[in-house]
Amino acid sequence: MSTDDITIERVAVPAISFAQVPVLVAHLRSIYPDARVNTQCVPRHHSTRDTIEYLRDCDAAIVSFEPINAEVLAALPRLKVVSKLGVGLDTIDPVAMRKHNVRLGWTPGVNKRSVAELALCLTLAALKHVVAANVDMRAGKRPLQRVGRQLTGRVVGIHGCGEIGQDFIRLLKPFGCHVIACDLRDRSEFYHEFDVESVSPAALYARSEVLSIHMNVTPMNRGLYNADVLDQLRPDCVLVNTSRGTLVDEVALRERLKRRQIAAAAFDVFEHEPPEDDELLNLDNFIATPHIGSGSMEARLQMGMAAIQGLTHHFLPQPGEYPFECYT
Ligand code: 8YV
């Protein structure tokens, strides 16, 4: 972690979630008066070319989904610090960062409560058919019965037990669920404290009545929830995803939801955002939200302040080491 050996004069912020919060923009500009901020909220996050264009001539950047890869860094020799708004590192290539000596500002867990609350909200909504019932009501129907399930006492599986997965488990406490979890890292201390059963991926798929995904995407797990894995889920499983859409094969999921091979799914994240598969989005056993996990005022502020701090508190990513263990 370094604070003082890099001089930053020009900062660029293409991240819309930052630019939308005036207090963050004002705070940034009180430190870096000439900061270029995407206050017009032009979407840029899918394009390498636009990212290069926006970050040209800058020493530091606050990014959300903009790709920070070999091509971008080769084109931006002046860039010394990339500070991440939020926690997902899937758009950041640690090998290229290291090669170009570009440092990373990153605060783990900065939006964990906000995302964990949404995971709980989606879980309850799916178990109780809240959205489908509301859609019926709006369509003029007044269904007399819509039998759902309680969360209390259910087997809840957590795939990825980092900051957000752990916070979700904290929120589950009053529901008396049997929590099972699977993680590459040793989480035994947390598991012990919160009475969590550590299980294999196969057991997680086979036993979870609610399965909530909380993994970082890496080259190792991209597309992990493919047809083969989805076929291992229980027919009464509710699959919840508030992490990254690229972990799940959406076409395979859609087909299984349609034939009720999987009871329901509730997703805040999609392979391509905004999502385009209207057939999936309109299934009555699928709940979709447009990546709002960290979209609370509290989280936005915390993320933004942490990202500003990341411009001066940063580290050189090391592939193979935390938080990039899955890279070589
Ligand atoms: C943020 C996210 O909205 O933290 C993350 O990784 O995906 C989101 O919660 C995003 O990073 C905003 O920049």
What features would you describe in this structure?
- This is D-3-phosphoglycerate dehydrogenase.
- Its EC number is 1.1.1.95.
- It is an enzyme of class 1 (oxidoreductase).
- By secondary structure, this protein is an alpha/beta fold.
- The chain folds into two domains: 11-107, Rossmann fold; 112-288, Rossmann fold.
- The chain has 14 helices and twelve strands.
- The protein has helices at residues 16-19, 22-31, 48-55, 70-75, 94-99, 112-127, 130-138, 163-172, 188-194, 201-207, 227-230, 250-258, 278-281, 297-310; strands spanning 11-13, 36-37, 60-63, 81-84, 103-105, 155-159, 178-182, 197-198, 210-213, 238-241, 264-267, 286-288.
- The longest helix is centred in the middle third of the chain and has 16 residues, at 112-127.
- It is globular, with a radius of gyration of 21 Å.
- It starts with 10 loop residues before the first strand and ends in an 18-residue tail after the last helix.
- The relative contact order is 0.15.
- The model has no long low-confidence stretch (mean pLDDT 96).
- 2-keto-D-gluconic acid binds at residues 15, 17, 64, 85-88, 111, 293-294.
